[in-house]
Amino acid sequence: MGGAVLAFIASFLPYYSVNLGSIFGVNLGSVSANAWHGFFGWFGMVLVLAAGVVAALEIFTNFKNPMVPLLTLIGAGAGLLCILLAMFVGFSSFSRGIGYWLSFVAAAGATAGAVMIYLKAPKAAEPPAFYPAAPATGGTPPAYPPTAYPPAPQYPPTTPPNPPM
């Protein structure tokens, strides 16, 4: 959660910057933009922030779902990947500002936390290969299978059949 909040705050700091150079000895300065001006920057922030919100919901509310560790891992990991891709997208003259590096480190921390949550989460037991019948809960015993089978009939019968009348 903390990494997601820090990454979100860092997304408003200078993310991309470009030096405009100088003309006739006059410095034109530089221009910067935050993470919300490029697809991978803002999409990565949304994913990391969503993973933090899902983790916060489970911690601070009664929202309990066995998919939460996996969702936080996917959200934080995909967000980190988008932020990493934001490094390679853009013009070659762009440089990465302090906002980029802070959000990258914070997203990496959020992803590491999501990995720890995922590894600590209880795993579902493997279903058995054979599902045994449920035990009887009392009362009358189940009708099937019978506990004792009737004796097999004798062939030929030992007693003569009844004569017709």
Q: What order do the strands of the largest sheet run in, or round the barrel if closed?
A: 2-1-3
Percent range of helical residues: 40-55%
Which class of secondary structure composition applies to the elements? mainly alpha
Q: Could you give a short account of the major beta sheet? A: 3 strands, antiparallel
Give the N-terminus to C-terminus distance in angstroms: 94 Å
Radius of gyration based on Cα positions: 34 Å
Poorly predicted regions are none
As a percent range, the share of strand residues is 5-15%
Count of alpha/pi helices: 4
Mean pLDDT across all amino acids = 81
Number of strands: 3
The arrangement of helices and strands along the chain is HEEHHEH
Overall shape: it is: rod-shaped
Question: Which properties best describe this structure?
Answer:
165 residues; mainly alpha; three-stranded antiparallel sheet; 4 helices; 3 strands
Itemize the secondary structure elements and their pairings:
Elements: H1 2-10, E1 16-23, E2 26-33, H2 39-60, H3 68-88, E3 95-96, H4 98-120
Antiparallel strand pairs: 1-2, 1-3
Helix pairs in contact: 1-2, 1-4, 2-3, 2-4, 3-4
Compact overview of the structure:
This protein is mainly alpha-helical and 165 residues long. The protein has helices spanning 2-10, 39-60, 68-88, 98-120; strands at 16-23, 26-33, 95-96.
What do these coordinates show?
With 165 residues, the chain is mainly alpha-helical. The chain is 45% helix and 11% strand. The chain is rod-shaped. Helix 1 runs antiparallel to helix 2 (39-60) and helix 2 runs antiparallel to helix 3. The chain has a domain at 2-17 and 29-120. It has a three-stranded antiparallel sheet. The mean pLDDT is 81. The protein has four helices and three strands; from the N terminus they run αββααβα. It has helices at 2-10, 39-60, 68-88, 98-120; strands at 16-23, 26-33, 95-96.
